[in-house]
Amino acid sequence: xxxxxxxxxxxxxxxxxxxxxxxxxxxxxxxxxxxxxxxxxxxxxxxxxxxxxxxxxxxxxxxxxxxxxxxxxxxxxxxxxxxxxxxxxxxxxxxxxxxxxxxxxxxxxxxxxxxxxxxxxxxxxxxxxxxxxxxxxxxxxxxxxxxxxxxxxxxxxxxxxxxxxxxxxxxxxxxxxxxxxxxxxxxxxxxxxxxxxxxxxxxxxxxxxxxxxxxxxxxxxxxxxxxxxxxxxxxxxxxxxxxxxxxxxxxxxxxxxxxxxxxxxxxxxxxxxxxxxxxxxxxxxxxxxxxxxxxxxxxxxxxxxxxxxxxxxxxxxxxxxxxxxxxxxxxxxxxxxxxxxxxxxxxxxxxxxxxxxxxxxxxxxxxxxxxxxxxxxxxxxxxxxxxxxxxxxxxxxxxxxxxxxxxxxxxxxxxxxxxxxxxxxxxxxxxxxxxxxxxxxxxxxxxxxxxxxxxxxxxxxxxxxxxxxxxxxxxxxxxxxxxxxxxxxxxxxxxxxxxxxxxxxxxxxxxxxxxxxxxxxxxxxxxxxxxxxxxxxxxxxxxxxxxxxxxxxxxxxxxxxxxxxxxxxxxxxxxxxxxxxxxxxxxxxxxxxxxxxxxxxxxxxxxxxxxxxxxxxxxxxxxxxxxxxxxxxxxxxxxxxxxxxxxxxxxxxxxxxxxxxxxxxxxxxxxxxxxxxxxxxxxxxxxxxxxxxxxxxxxxxxxxxxxxxxxxxxxxxxxxxxxxxxxxxxxxxxxxxxxxxxxxxxxxxxxxxxxxxxxxxxxxxxxxxxxxxxxxxxxxxxxxxxxxxxxxxxxxxxxxxxxxxxxxxxxxxxxxxxxxxxxxxxxxxxxxxxxxxxxxxxxxxxxxxxxxxxxxxxxxxxxxxxxxxxxxxxxxxxxxxxxxxxxxxxxxxxxxxxxxxxxxxxxxxxx
Length: 911
Prior knowledge:
Layout: E1 11-12, E2 24-26, E3 36-39, E4 46-50, H1 70-81, E5 94-101, E6 107-115, E7 118-129, E8 135-141, H2 156-171, E9 178-180, E10 184-188, E11 201-210, E12 219-224, E13 230-235, E14 242-247, E15 257-260, H3 272-292, E16 303-310, E17 322-324, E18 329-332, H4 339-353, H5 361-381, E19 394-395, E20 407-408, H6 432-435, H7 441-452, E21 453-456, E22 459-462, H8 466-479, H9 487-501, H10 509-521, E23 544-551, E24 560-566, E25 571-573, E26 592-595, E27 602-608, E28 612-613, E29 619-628, E30 634-640, E31 648-649, E32 654-656, E33 661-662, E34 675-676, E35 679-680, E36 685-690, E37 698-707, E38 715-727, H11 739-747, H12 767-779, H13 804-812, H14 832-844, H15 869-877, H16 897-908
Parallel strand pairs: 14-16, 16-18
Antiparallel strand pairs: 1-13, 2-3, 3-4, 4-8, 5-6, 6-7, 7-8, 9-11, 10-11, 11-12, 12-13, 14-15, 17-18, 19-20, 21-22, 23-38, 24-27, 25-26, 26-38, 27-37, 28-37, 29-35, 29-36, 29-38, 30-31, 30-37, 32-36, 33-34
Helix pairs in contact: 3-4, 4-5, 5-7, 5-8, 7-10, 8-9, 9-10, 11-16, 12-13, 14-15
């Protein structure tokens, strides 16, 4: 539980949407009074509604309501405002989980969301009210618009066996050594727990534990009730006044031999570890009773059971950890010597019985941090251990020297943990149940700031001391957090807790401002990166991708072919099942998909049908999302330069978002031992290859998925595959006929294109645009025309028109007199004949007249009596144009922007 770098394998449905925090915004007109509403970016629903700054009620109770129960008030409020949270029916879709009432009479009602009677994982709501039944806040996360077949296709026995086999594989324990709880139907969508928007699934919820308590395993498994795959799996072991302290004597039998209880307070006959475990369990009990009037872990006198000198593998290196297994504390040799460790682990039991925060992702980081907070507060107030100034805020300073300090709450970065949400130390990977130990540093830093005060990240916080701070945290822990709460939820919960406690325990509104300052200092309502999606840019700043090959699969899969060398072909166009997942494309509505099921050894490929020539400095980028059994199933990408006769791994060419890890060589995966994409991708990400070394060669790409003989998750999604080069304009590659001319024009800042990264080479040039192009080409990119003044001189060009000043100046210089009848026709496309006049007048001045046309113009479609014949002939004579064909000029044809580039560069000799 307390090791610095635990690695936990977990499998979860991936999503496409980015994770983002709830952002406080002004209340909509229909919201009660003036309140703050924070929204959940993935569901689009409110996640918090309240007035955290001053604690005002957001809805005052009527005289009749003041005599109603808390549940009646809460349901009535949600009946009126629940639609903002995604609640369709506050009476049928919510089941009461728990009601609490504080000493001051403040009440909370906690609801569980259900759909057709089936509970939703992390779908919970809390309504918080004062003693007069005024609603102070409502918070929680609801999965809206559920439409799901709730009749399972997979039976309970199959689900239990799947959970057992998965846990066996992940833990290394034999299936026979494990036991599964009775499966229960739950509805799951990762948006509420893991920060990913994915499929809403009917699942069997199973908990797998050792039959004899032989190992720190308490696996939470969700088995899909329709397909039988694993939707989610993670270990809940939180790696404990009636004290019962046991000694395992270096074995893995729990609880071991009883060595002391309440009648042997000094643990006579026990080891030093047993004595300290017994002593510090008592200190933790006393802290909770003194500060929170809480009688043990469950608030009802639960026995505090501890086992010391535990070794998960007797005879192997000593077990250097401690954990709460759901019913007792377990310590490896020496781990009970630290009072903060003992209090830390016992607090996991309190959290499980109060907010019940999942030990996963940000909810797990808060869970872990709460244990650090109470662990350190016990440490700093019990008069035991080493607590001098140099050790204050260290976690585990009294552990054996071989382990040493684990974390520092005053400065989490000392041990590589983040001290704010945007810290580069914030862990976004899949290990450690999504970084529960690493990312606990965010709240650890906030708790330190609240207690001691400091200036950090532009905020100066005046400390509140331990007593006030722990009251605020306990109120949030027991009243305001749901099982899936994340840091954005904690941000509002702590502020709401402070305002609710104002006037008690000497807590003031000024203190609440300090709480907010501390939370803002650690940026608790932000997210570390946008959605945890590690996208890579196709090109550098100022450059854009010009495609040589692009397929977004909106026209089907005709450019690809799939096959299987081992097992069956797992590749399909789009999702092959029912509408459970819906559209899961990176863009548009179509994609390619490789199933991670069935769980048989498989080697299946998807490859391009034809090769593509790689341009100079060529790159390849594709977007993909995957949820594959971590470390066992995975995908690779391969390249062929001989039309598919042979293939090489493309890994060495990847320069953005490469493989996750090597695949296990066991369990029969044909790709075993190779590095691959495996685990979870956090939704769609982009992977980029640098193919510059293959410039000029014809290449073919293929995606290759390897599966082993057991266990499966969702699969691999591929979309938007592009072979390209990075250029100034994405629609003008180096193979465009006018590439160098357009580049010259842009390099001279005559034009920045027609939009972000676009030049629109085939678009006609309007007369308004021509005014700008001519003047900039003539005078340089820094030129700006005089202010337009009172009028432009043209009836159809208002002074507010975007090019008014340019058009007026063009006329002032005698380059144009307009299109007739005092009009300029700014949106009319310039013809090639008009271009001849514009260019020569701009170059030579308004008094310029071309030589007489003579006997012929040189172009078959320009007779000598054509109105612009002399101008066209002279333009050709100066080498500015050779016409539109070998013999024609096409005088009435509109000038395109790529042609314009050539005209301007040649006319003004642009370098």
